[in-house]
Design brief:
Chain lengths: ~220, ~80
């Protein structure tokens, strides 16, 4: 199992993501100008401030050459995980439903949050059980998940809400307390909290490792 | 051709920046201002104004969360991206 972790100008969590992936498989960094994914079986779009978050968070990164390759990979069923800014990029690219808006508080939030696993039947959460509580750090200014009412109803009905902030834990005003969603096909996931920062007992929680472990357990679908 | 694109949060989307400004105004002695919404202004010069709607849809605005209005400044028409 080989992970590819995309590095954009302005990414800042790609090394932690790389190290998290390497606990469960091989991993290498991909550059935003790359046009192929160097044989990756799964792609991680990490957190940070790609292209300075100019215009809107994620709006410019979606036009980078590597995102064409990521979109084609996702269309073929390849697993793609977007974390924080990566979630914003995937929404802007139309690979995930909805959008991320500035936190209701307008403040940068940086703290450990509890999220509930709402759907354990995905490539990203198969190492969890439904109802599991994961303690993962969140750190963002633009994390308020929004989707038009019809879309929200649909993603709820389809089980596309994979992670939800536990009661009282919503750090950003996200609708329906949504912390992480998958696309309709189930092979693209985005979440605001940072599982890559919660893989070592030294930092207080290893719960984030469950997502990488789930992905590593997945049979590669692409040769 | 010069153009302006005015982008604002869609109706119904919480705009905490606008709310904060609305609360700050009375503190400075300005009363009676309500429904403050804060958006973004993009000014640009274009060879082909016909490309502007697609530019707005694909990059300048995110139609899921924002409405936009286009204003052509050299005597052209205005169009509105709101539904």
């Amino acid at each position: 199992m080989k992970f590819g972790v995309v590095r954009f100008p302005g990414s800042c969590d790609e090394v932690d993501a790389l190290l998290a992936c390497r606990r469960f498989g091989d991993a290498e960094l991909l550059w935003h100008g790359d046009r192929d994914l160097r044989g990756a079986d799964a792609v991680v779009i990490p957190g940070g401030f790609s292209y300075g978050d100019y215009l809107r968070a994620g709006a410019i990164a979606r036009f980078s050459p590597v995102m064409e390759a990521v979109a084609a990979f996702a269309a073929d069923g390849g697993p793609v995980l977007g974390i924080c800014n990566g979630f914003q990029v995937l929404c802007e690219a139309g690979l995930l439903p909805g959008a991320l808006l500035p936190n209701t508080s307008l403040r940068f939030v940086c703290r450990q949050v509890d999220v509930v696993v709402e759907n354990a039947d995905t490539s990203f959460t198969r190492a969890c059980a439904r109802g599991d509580l994961l303690s993962i750090p969140g750190k963002h200014t633009t994390g308020r998940y929004h989707a038009p009412a019809d879309d929200l109803d649909r993603i709820e009905a389809n089980g596309q809400v994979v992670l939800r902030y536990a009661p009282g834990e919503n750090p950003n005003g996200a609708e329906h307390d949504i912390a992480g969603v998958v696309n309709e096909a189930g092979n693209v996931m985005g979440l605001m909290p940072h599982p890559e920062h919660a893989v070592d007992p030294l930092t207080g929680s290893t719960d984030g490792g469950k997502l990488f472990e789930s992905l590593a357990a997945r049979e590669p679908v692409l040769a | 051709m010069k153009a302006r694109v005015l982008i604002r949060p869609k109706e119904g989307i919480l705009d905490p920046q606008g709310q904060t400004v609305e609360r700050a105004l009375p503190a400075l002695g300005f009363h009676g201002a309500s429904h403050v919404r804060i958006g973004r202004l993009v000014e640009l010069e274009l060879d082909d104004p016909e490309q502007l709607p697609a530019m707005c849809e694909k990059l300048l605005a995110n139609p899921l969360i924002e409405d936009y209005e286009v204003e052509l400044l050299d005597g052209g028409d205005s169009t509105n991206g709101a539904p």
